[in-house]
């Protein structure tokens, strides 16, 4: 696989985004409600064995089909770990090592799941393992902050400051 800006991509990773505005005119125009779009995504991802995937209600989204189609997530921006060259050339490796976004519903591949304390994760989320992937769903009685603490081992870490 060749990336026009950065050369050969050794371990390609599929990036997919389904995003829509939750408004009746939009649903009528595209023929899908957000609920139906979520169901389609869940059905698709169940057979895809992703390295990681998310479903969330958010104002942020990647911009597929643009030069920023693999743009940094809010977590990566805050941690200061995003580099377009690294994300383009080594995206699959990055997705195996660290979670790019925390959502109420997400899927973790076996590499990420192996680095998380399963007992701690199950205290804050429903965990359903299917093959090499686990579906993680935040419990309604728990905060997203609690989920972040359970996933701390795979969250982006702030980049070290350069020496003066």
Task: Briefly say what this structure is.
This protein has helices at residues 24-30, 34-46, 74-79, 84-89, 91-97, 110-113, 118-124, 144-150, and strands at residues 2-3, 7-8, 52-55, 105-109, 125-130, 133-138. By secondary structure, it is an alpha+beta fold. A four-stranded antiparallel sheet has the order 3-4-6-5. It has a two-stranded antiparallel sheet with strand order 1-2.
What can you tell me about this protein's structure?
The protein is α+β, with helices and mostly antiparallel strands. Helix content is 35%, strand content 15%. It has helices spanning 24-30, 34-46, 74-79, 84-89, 91-97, 110-113, 118-124, 144-150; strands at 2-3, 7-8, 52-55, 105-109, 125-130, 133-138. The strands form 2 sheets. It has a 4-stranded antiparallel beta sheet with strand order 3-4-6-5. Strands 1-2 form a two-stranded antiparallel sheet. The termini are far apart.
Major sheet details: 4 strands, antiparallel
Taken in chain order, the helices and strands follow as EEHHEHHHEHHEEH
Mean pLDDT: 78
N/C terminus separation: 39 Å
Question: How many DSSP helices?
Answer: 8
Q: In percent, how helical is the residue content? A: 25-40%
The largest sheet has its strands arranged as: 3-4-6-5
Residue stretches low in confidence (pLDDT < 50, at least 5 long) are 1-9
Oligomer: single chain
Shape: globular
Broad structural category: alpha+beta
Question: Which band does the percent of strand residues land in?
Answer: 15-25%
Number of strands: 6
**Rg, Cα atoms, Å:** 17 Å
């Amino acid at each position: 696989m060749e990336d026009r800006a950065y050369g050969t991509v050794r371990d390609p990773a599929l990036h997919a985004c389904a995003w829509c505005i939750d408004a009746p005119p939009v649903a009528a125009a595209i023929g899908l409600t957000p609920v139906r779009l979520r169901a389609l995504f869940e059905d698709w991802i169940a057979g895809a064995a992703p390295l990681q995937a998310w479903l969330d209600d958010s104002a942020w989204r990647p911009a597929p089909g643009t030069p920023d189609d693999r743009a940094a997530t809010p977590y990566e921006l805050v941690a200061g770990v995003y580099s377009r060259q690294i994300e383009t050339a080594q995206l699959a490796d990055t997705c195996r090592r660290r979670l790019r976004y925390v959502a109420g519903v997400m899927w973790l591949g076996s590499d990420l799941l192996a680095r998380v304390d399963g007992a701690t994760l199950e205290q804050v989320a429903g965990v359903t393992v299917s093959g090499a992937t686990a579906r993680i769903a935040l419990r309604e009685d728990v905060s997203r902050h609690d989920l972040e603490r359970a996933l701390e081992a795979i969250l982006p870490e702030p980049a070290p400051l350069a020496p003066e």
